Amino acid sequence: QDLPGGIKQRLALSCSLIHDPKLIFLDEPTAGVDPASRRIFWDLIRDLKEQGRTIFVTTHYMDEVEQCDRIALMNRGRIDALDTPLSLRTKILPGPVFEVTGKEPAPIKQVLEAIQAEGEIVRFDPFGRGFHVVSTEAGLSNKTKQTLETLHCNVHKINASLEDVFVYVIGHEK
Questions:
Q1: What is the pTM of this model?
Q2: What secondary structure, in 3-state letters, does the chain show?
Q3: What is the pLDDT of residues 105-116, one digit of tens each?
Q4: Fold of 91-172
């Protein structure tokens, strides 16, 4: 009972391997575990994969999801998307993703809401100190970029993250 979270999780994994299973289910294996222990745990998972085992992992950590071969994005008990990480990032979103950051998030949000109402932005979500903006297929117009720059915003096209995809998939159904 007094073991640290990382040790408890590794012990639980070790116990599950006693019977040499070919199929392993891990439910939130790194929840409550420090970053160093998470890395060790994922090294163990990769070792098991290299031994030919199939591993199902449920997690809320999108950086962990990136390490999986195939991903099922679930929402309300239903699989909304199933594919490889690369395919999900490139096929699900309707257009490029931009990161918009600036000194004052409130005015940026108001401008993004106005641009979204005009149809150039599909959705935007807070991300770190700014916003991730999913645009239409055409991307952001020069006019939009200039409007954001007048607010002293930095606008950069970025690679979509799996978090962007997940938020789009679950938010798109609302």
A1: 0.77
A2: CCCCHHHHHHHHHHHHCCCCCCEEEEECCCCCCCHHHHHHHHHHHHHHHHCCCEEEEECCCHHHHCCCCCEEEEECCEEEEEECHHHHHHHCCCCCEEEEECCCHHHHHHHHHHHHHCCCEEEEEEECCEEEEEECCCCCCHHHHHHHHHCCCEEEEECCCHHHHHHHHHHHCC
A3: 778 888 899 888
A4: Alpha-Beta Plaits (3.30.70)
